[in-house]
Amino acid sequence: MTQARRRWRSALLSVLVGLAACSNSPAPPKKTVVPTPVDPATAGTIHVEVTYAGSVPTPNSIDMRSAPQCAAAHTEPVYNQSLLVQNGRLANAVVWIKDGLQNWVFAPPAQPAVIDQQGCLYVPHVAAAMVDQTVEFRNSDREAHNIHGRPSVERAWNFLLGRPGASQTLSFDKPEVGIPVGCDIHPWMRGYLSILPNPYFAVTPANGSATLSQVPPGTYVVSVWHETLGTAEQRVTLEPHGSVDVQIALAGKS
Fold first, then answer.
1. Position 35 in a domain
2. What whole-number distance in Å separates Cα of residue 254 and Cα of residue 68?
3. Residue 116, in any domain of the structure
4. Number of domains making up the chain
5. Is there a domain that residue 33 lies in?
6. Would 93 disulfide with which of 65, 136, 159, 204, CB 3.0-4.6 Å?
């Protein structure tokens, strides 16, 4: 690493330490929520399969040579995660019930959603949580990282996790899909966080499938978001104790 690069990183870390010191204000007390009960005898399941239509471009490899400890954490090439397709199935798509539950009240999950930093990458690359659910950011690297969120609805955040095992928690009181999260020290580090208004959401794994369970009967709009392919949605009707299969395709540029 060049001397100029070292000076730049040292100056950046100093600024981020200051930001971190200003960002450690205590979290507001949790709101008391009285949820609308969901009758398990009538609740059903929505199975969503997200597919990709189009040719799959060759992913670009990530160059980590500017941070030797990051590069040393990987024995194989690391590739951009912005479009992961396997047998036509799309990973890292956020699936959720967008419309149809406005008259319901749901308590946020007690367990936090976790975004870790491993090998100078966000794990998972795409995460989702419910409004007022705790989101825990962790650093499992020996490298210092800052977590810089750039929402358009929520307030932006930027704090430093400077040592292995460091963590910080946030929560969000408004829904927003696809919040970009990055590290200013390692510019290839990019991830996304979605905050959803109800507990019926998932991020698709490699097989492109998501299951929304214990859904009350009703008519809903199921929506899908992907960082490079945008959004798509489909209206479905779930009968009491029913099961609905939904297939949503997102298309790449031709």
1. no
2. 38
3. yes
4. 1
5. no
6. 204
Nearest to 190 by CA among 111, 81, 108, 102: 81
Query: β-strand 94-99 against 113-118: which pairing, if any?
Result: unpaired
Q: What CATH number did the domain enclosing 223 receive?
A: 2.60.40.420
Could you tell me if residue 52 is inside a domain?
yes
pLDDT number for residue 15: 47
Instruction: Provide the residue count of the chain.
Output: 254
Q: Report the distance separating Cα 136 and Cα 169, nearest Å.
A: 4
Angle at 93 between CA 87 and CA 97, to 5 degrees: 125
8 A C-beta contact, residue 186 and residue 59: no
Give the number of other CB atoms < 10 A from CB of residue 228: 11
C-alpha R_g of the chain: 20
Q: What is residue 118's predicted lDDT score, i.e. its pLDDT?
A: 97
Residue keyed to tokens 């959401």: 201
Q: Which domain holds residue 246?
A: 3-23+40-251
116 and 123 in contact (C-beta within 8 Å)?
Answer: yes
- Per DSSP, 61 falls in state B
CB count within 10 Å of CB 137 equals 25
Rounded to whole angstroms, the Cα distance separating 131 from 200 reads 12
Measure the CA–CA gap between 4 and 198, rounded to whole angstroms.
Answer: 48
